[in-house]
Amino acid sequence: MPIVKDFFIGLSNSSFLNKTAKEIGPMFGANKVVAGNTIKSLVDTIERLNQKGITVTVDCLGEFVVTEGEAIQAKDQIIEVMYAIYNHNLDGHMSVKLSQLGSEFDIDLAYRNLREILLKANEFNNMHINIDTEKYDSLFDITQVLDRLKGEFRNVGTVIQAYLYKADALIDKYPELRLRMVKGAYKESDSIAYQTKEEIDDNYIRLIEKRLLNAKNVTSIATHDDKVITHIKQFIKDNNIEKDRYEFQMLYGFRSELAEQIAGEGYNFCIYVPYGDDWFSYFMRRLAERPQNLNLMFKELLKPTVLKKTGIVAGTLAAVVATSVLVGRLLKK
Ligand SMILES: Cc1cc2nc3c(=O)[nH]c(=O)nc-3n(C[C@H](O)[C@H](O)[C@H](O)COP(=O)(O)OP(=O)(O)OC[C@H]3O[C@@H](n4cnc5c(N)ncnc54)[C@H](O)[C@@H]3O)c2cc1C
Q1: What are the residues facing 99 on neighbouring strands?
Q2: Which atom of ligand 1 is nearest to the CA of 161?
Q3: What's the CATH class of domain 35-278?
Q4: CB under 6 Å to ligand 1: residues?
């Protein structure tokens, strides 16, 4: 349903809605896919997952960073979370976005912030730092920063979006780095990215297989798609890929039973745990990916207390989202 997808991607890019949502806190079911906004709630979540044999990668939410002060604050929050993971002896690492470190207005500032994070990571058991990929127009910045840092640090990696025609070349460029393989979450034009689910799925599987056979570091297979997971498990078996060369990843709050089942089968498993107040844009992207995720918020919307408690601003947000629920349902019919 491209219209629904475009609609939610559009909402995710609204700085007004993001700012507003940040003020009122997680709602519409977002609290089921974000691990709270206190270090205590985050630590509790990680402990619970670690006890099930699952490691985590934490994303301190926040993309609409427009001042140096905000970028430094984001960097400090990331280091605070890294310290909590280390101090509580938890099994986890970090996922960061260059945009939250200032890349949209000062790429050198983002580089310096990330370098400081990596220097700290070396004090915290060489914690891995993953650079999440964002919209295509930020890809050049990511590779530029990565190329500057990968000689100095071994614990930095990034994400390959299989919908990009360029994904194949990026895999060839970074065999020595730890890479996360995803289908891709943003809206990109057909001049740079595959558009149909079939093309994206085919490229995704092809690239994971290529990477598993050739890489010199861990490949994270990040998907909720059980067909892809079943296929890759068989590929791993047929090609005797060693266990420490790959892991599966999923997002916190999605397909938890399947995640626990795969971890229980003995595969390395990592959950991507979003944390903090800046929940809106992340949540809208999840709705864009899978309109069925609307069910997460549908029950919440029906609670009269939700609107009463949060006033007119939340009412506006609720109206926007409620409209989309209806549009989604109508289009499904
Ligand atoms: C850990 C992680 C990190 C990510 N990091 C990035 C990043 O840095 N940059 C980026 O662009 N994108 C990132 N993504 C998002 C990714 O690009 C996809 O947009 C997202 O994962 C949806 O695609 P999918 O592979 O899960 O499968 P989809 O194509 O969305 O789903 C395929 C099939 O899987 C099943 N399925 C999926 N979800 C569910 C569910 N909740 N319940 C039941 N069945 C379900 C359905 O049968 C569905 O048809 C990340 C995703 C993960 C899991």
Answers
A1: none
A2: 11
A3: alpha beta
A4: 132-133, 159, 161, 182-186, 222-225, 249-251, 254-255, 272, 289-290
Position 75 confidence tier, pLDDT thresholds 50, 70, 90: very high
pLDDT of residue 332: 47
Residue-wise over 34-47: b if at least 16 C-beta within 10 A, else e?
bbbbebeebbebbe
- The full set of domain ranges for the chain reads 1-25+290-333, 35-278
Q: What is the mean pLDDT of residues 255-267?
A: 96
Q: What is the pLDDT of residue 283?
A: 82
Per-residue pLDDT reduced to its tens digit, 274-323: 999 888 888 888 888 776 776 665 545 555 554 454 444 455 555 566 55
In SS3 terms, 186-217 reads as: CCCCCCCECCCHHHHHHHHHHHHHHHHHHCCC
Classify burial at 247, counting beta carbons within 10 Å of its beta carbon; exposed 0-12, middle 13-18, buried 19 or more: buried
Q: Are 204 and 231 in contact (CB under 8 A)?
A: no
Q: Among the options 141, 178, 180, 201, which is catalytic? A: 180
To the query of whether residue 244 is one of the catalytic residues in this protein, the response is no
Q: How are beta strands 219-222 and 246-251 bridged, if at all?
A: parallel
**Distance of CA 6 from the midpoint of ligand 1 (Å):** 16
Q: Where are the alpha helices (DSSP H) in 215-293?
A: 226-238, 256-264, 280-289
Burial zone of 240 (CB within 10 Å; 0-12 exposed, 13-18 middle, 19+ buried): exposed
